[in-house]
Amino acid sequence: MHFLRPVAALLGAAALVSAAPIDTGAPNNNNNNHDLPDGLPYPSPSELTLIEQQAHGTLPNGSPPPVISSQGIVNLQLIAFNELFEVAFFDELVTNITEGVVGYRFSVTDDRDLVVASLKAILAQEELHAIRANNALIHFHAHPIEPCQYHFPVKDYDSAIALAATFTDVVLGTLQDTVERFALGHDFDLAREIAAVIGNEGEQQGWFRMQQGKIPSELPFLTTSDVNFAFTAIQNFIYPGSCPNIHEIPLRTFEPLEIVTKASAKSQNLTFSFEDRANETSQFWMTYINQQNTPIVEPLNIVSHTGSYIEASAIFPYDEHELNGLTIAAVTKSGGPFADANTVAKWTHAGPGLIIVD
Ligand SMILES: *[C@@H]1O[C@H](CO)[C@@H](O)[C@H](O)[C@H]1NC(C)=O
Ligand SMILES: *[C@@H]1O[C@H](CO)[C@@H](O)[C@H](O)[C@H]1NC(C)=O
Ligand SMILES: *[C@@H]1O[C@H](CO)[C@@H](O)[C@H](O)[C@H]1NC(C)=O
Predict the structure, then answer these.
(1) Ligand 1 pocket residue status of 96, Cβ below 6 Å
(2) Which residues make Cβ contacts (< 8 Å) with residue 49, sequence separation at least 6?
(3) What's the 276 CA to ligand 3 centre distance in angstroms?
(4) Across 106-115, 178-187, 223-232, 313-322, least confident range
(5) Contact of 91 with 150, CB cutoff 8 Å
(6) Where is the signal peptide (predicted)?
């Protein structure tokens, strides 16, 4: 259940990262290439006081427990890695709105004021989540996670909120996995705080959903995920080579999976594309994770295979399984059956593909 990337691959990745100049791929003098707000990742005491005021609350004032499992450290690393990305995103979103960037203007001032107030609180709350995770890493004598340079594939308010809802869905699923891993590692003192964060992210999500004209509560039992899926998904928003210590996070990065057709609320064939650079696998399956149900495996039909690029289609069995809310799609090297999301991740070649219906 606790699979690490093979040592050789890990060393290879680390060597690649350290050999690359720190700003590879990141344009200079670009709007997206700015420092995190409020002194993050290491705010001064006065900056922290300001963040707490904006967050409408404080960092927990008790100490983390004296010991932690090795998987517990990985959980904290992933949480810090994710929260720093969220801080960069919400800071840029608030800035776009307050500066009246085209695509981020509101016709009604009251609407705009509530949106800005909501997003400023969310930003500060994410800052505290990031600071808390990094403080815990320091407490356990591990390196804190350093921020990267980020870019976001959005250009207006609606696409930004849709993206926020998508990554928050993945976070809501992934924090379930970290709670289970804390439990397995006997890190029970950390589980309660993660549950408190899950509630906060769920409140945010209800508001993101209403901003899109959806009902606030998505599912009775939110879709689960795996830490490796989140680790891979966040890297979509990072300039390669811009993360000072991503190589210290011993999680797997899968091949990207693109969902070519947009899914709707009916059973349908979806087209996917991904790469198979090693050309080592003769057969793939499409596996879907939705709600708290056992993963669904479908045959993956190869439509074209050009060089290392594969285009393939699979049924998205919406009608049979009520695939509402987030579905995580993964191209797997096994046809299962899979007991849970962790086993799917263990056999994943490409993913996660993120599908949200209603
Ligand atoms: C902010 O606006 C810029 C310019 O349109 C855009 O490139 C960027 O993706 C936006 N960021 C967010 C988080 O909305
Ligand atoms: C999906 O594609 C398969 C194979 O081409 C076809 O038999 C099936 O009817 C399609 N299903 C739907 C719902 O379109
Ligand atoms: C991978 O295998 C496919 C099908 O066997 C072939 O068409 C393709 O050229 C191969 N690609 C590489 C990079 O070897």
Answers:
(1) yes
(2) none
(3) 9
(4) 106-115
(5) no
(6) 1-19
Q: How far, in Å, from the CA of 305 to the mean position of ligand 3?
A: 7
Label residue 64 exposed, middle or buried (CB < 10 Å: 0-12, 13-18, 19+): buried
| Ligand 2 atom with least separation from CA of 313 | 2
CA 182 to chain centre: 19
Q: Which two tokens stand for residue 322?
A: 């009520």
Q: What is the DSSP string of 67-89?
A: ---HHHHHHHHHHHHHHHHHHHH
**How many whole angstroms separate alpha carbon 79 and alpha carbon 74?**
9
Give residue for tokens 């149900």: 293
Cα 156 to averaged position of ligand 1 atoms, centre (Å) = 7
Give residues with Cβ within 8 angstroms of 141, minimum separation 6.
none
- The structural domains of the chain, ordered by start, are 5-248 (no CATH), 257-357 (2.60.40.10)
Query: What's the predicted TM-score (pTM) here?
Result: 0.90
Ligand 2 in reach of 269 Cβ (< 6 A): yes
